[in-house]
Amino acid sequence: MGAPDTAETFVLVHGAWHGGWGWRPAAARLEAAGHAVHAPTSPGLAPGDDPTGVGLADAVDALVAYVERHDLRNVALVGHSWGGFLLSAAAPRLADRIVRLVYINAFVPLAGESMVSLIPERAAAMYAQRAAASVDNTTTVPLELWKAVFMQDAVAEVQELVHSLLTPHPFATLTDPAADVDYAALGVPLAYVGSREDLAMVAADAPWPPPFAERLPGRTFTEIGGSHASILTRPAEVADALLALMDVR
Which InterPro entries does the entry link to (predicted)? Predict the structure, then answer.
């Protein structure tokens, strides 16, 4: 496939317990459409990384450094789940390099919020207990919770395979508070892509679109199918949604 008339550089930011590998199915479709794609892995989550002491600021700094080191321009910065925290903090520092921000089944934090403050108390307590029992302050997601809430639209064999690839996550990145971000002042198009069957982010009786989408002033909202893990279970829909946003300025 030839290069499109207008090409973007996609920087895809993964969620908790994942790495850049989680974006491969969707990235392949974006690349096939002629776009450059980068999917870095956050500190503490790559093979051989030491997660001890890694906090939210370290993850944000690493994302900013990656974009600057590779001198990326015309960037569509896309974040999944916990990756929304990195998008929100990195965007003001990359203002001259980005052309849009896209949150996919992602948190859109306000000042002082952490990921554990935005999830049910029972889940937050469970992740804290697992971190306290670890030797390096990392936390994990139980297989049964993964199957029932995060990736319920996949068969058991796929659920178990993906779960086996997950990496214990630096817990401080889930408890550190977000900085204050004026989303309206970022000066770039804002978009939210939400999966209708996302049980991790949207309760069955919650309003639609997802409440986090409402935090983005003037945002474009796109509904897709699939679970919270739609970047893996519905990669074609995710890629199509990202490509469609290129026409919305």
Answer: AB_hydrolase_1, AB_hydrolase_fold, Sec-Metab_Biosynth_Hydrolase
Closest CA to 170 of 122, 131, 141, 116: 131
Please name the residue that has the structure tokens 């207008």. 6
What are the Cα distances from residue 121, in Å, to 125, 127, 150?
Answer: 6, 10, 17
Let me know: does 139 contact 119? Beta carbons within 8 Å: no
Domains of the chain, earliest start first: 9-245 (3.40.50.1820)
> What's the CA gap between 160 and 211, in Å, rounded?
30
CB 159 within 8 A of CB 186: no
Structure token pair of residue 53:
């002491």
CA distance 122 to 125: 5
Quickly list H helices, 70-219: 83-90, 121-132, 143-145, 156-165, 172-175
Q: Which amino acid is at 130?
A: R
- 192 burial (CB, 10 Å; 0-12 / 13-18 / 19+) is buried
What does the angle CA 10 – CA 14 – CA 20 come to, to the nearest 5 degrees? 75
Rounded CA gap, 67 and 53, in Å? 23
| 186, 174 Cβ separation under 8 angstroms | no
Q: What is the pTM of this model?
A: 0.95
